[in-house]
């Protein structure tokens, strides 16, 4: 079993920054994908960014340049640095994990097996 615990959410004004963290209990796979998703009220969950076990990152086109995904394997932690935040970034943010051998982490929610409980990000104008 893999447990994921997100932290770092909060309320910020537009233009501000936040860094989300996702603590991973263990990696039972040699190769895997990790990703961040978000879901705003009344909307579908959407992929934000993903990363492979060897550090290759993928981003939603609309978020490139503002968000950066990274991981610290020594700390079993996934991060999402969010800059220049906008009110439309307001959502619950989730991290997710799945085994995978590819060179790009998918940004489709249906691909991921393990999910955290989420951390709320609220951006005010």
Structure commentary:
It is built from no helices and eleven strands. The protein has strands at residues 4-7, 10-13, 18-24, 32-39, 46-52, 57-59, 67-72, 77-82, 91-99, 114-115, 119-124. Strands 2, 4, 5, 6, 9, 10 and 11 form a seven-stranded mixed β-sheet that branches. A four-stranded antiparallel β-sheet has the order 1-3-8-7, with no helix packed on it. A hairpin with a 4-residue loop joins strand 5 and strand 6 (57-59). 31% of the residues are buried.
Which keywords apply here?
four-stranded antiparallel sheet, 125 residues, 50% strand, mainly beta
Helix-strand layout with pairing:
Layout: E1 4-7, E2 10-13, E3 18-24, E4 32-39, E5 46-52, E6 57-59, E7 67-72, E8 77-82, E9 91-99, E10 114-115, E11 119-124
Parallel strand pairs: 2-11
Antiparallel strand pairs: 1-3, 3-8, 4-5, 4-9, 5-6, 7-8, 9-10, 9-11
Structural class based on helices, strands and sheet pairing: mainly beta
Helix content: under 10%
Which of globular, elongated, flat, extended, rod-shaped describes the shape?
Answer: globular
Note the main sheet: 7 strands, mixed
Count of discrete alpha- or pi-helical segments spanning 4 or more residues: 0
Q: Using DSSP, what is the number of strands?
A: 11
Poorly predicted ranges (pLDDT <50, ≥5 residues)?
Answer: none
- Strand content bin: over 45%
Averaged pLDDT: 95
């Amino acid at each position: 079993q893999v447990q994921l615990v997100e932290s770092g959410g909060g309320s910020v004004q537009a233009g501000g920054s936040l860094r989300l963290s996702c603590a991973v209990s263990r990696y039972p796979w040699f190769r895997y994908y990790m990703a961040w998703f978000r879901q705003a009220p009344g909307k579908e969950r959407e992929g934000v960014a993903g990363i492979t076990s060897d550090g290759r990152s993928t981003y939603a086109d609309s978020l490139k340049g503002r968000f950066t995904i990274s991981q610290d394997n020594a700390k079993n932690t996934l991060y999402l640095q969010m800059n220049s935040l906008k009110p439309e970034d307001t959502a619950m943010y989730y991290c997710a994990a799945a085994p995978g051998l590819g060179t790009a982490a998918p940004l489709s929610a249906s691909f991921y097996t393990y999910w955290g409980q989420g951390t709320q990000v609220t951006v005010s104008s």
